[in-house]
Design a protein that fits this description.
The chain is of the alpha+beta class and 49 residues long. The protein has one helix and three strands, in the order βββα.
Length: 49
């Protein structure tokens, strides 16, 4: 799974992480965990077409 939700930060909320070359890199932030998970599903939907 190339994407995952990271832990919550004090200022920016939940992190969305991507696995690049074996290392997890923060690529975005979301206000809630549910929105972060929805964002990951949307990223997968973009590649399905």
């Amino acid at each position: 799974m190339p994407y995952k939700v990271g832990r919550k930060t004090k200022t920016k909320g939940w992190t969305i992480m991507k696995n690049e070359k074996g290392k997890w890199k923060v690529i975005a932030h979301s206000k809630s965990k549910k929105k972060a998970q929805a964002s990951i599903r949307a990223r997968y939907a973009r590649f399905r077409d």
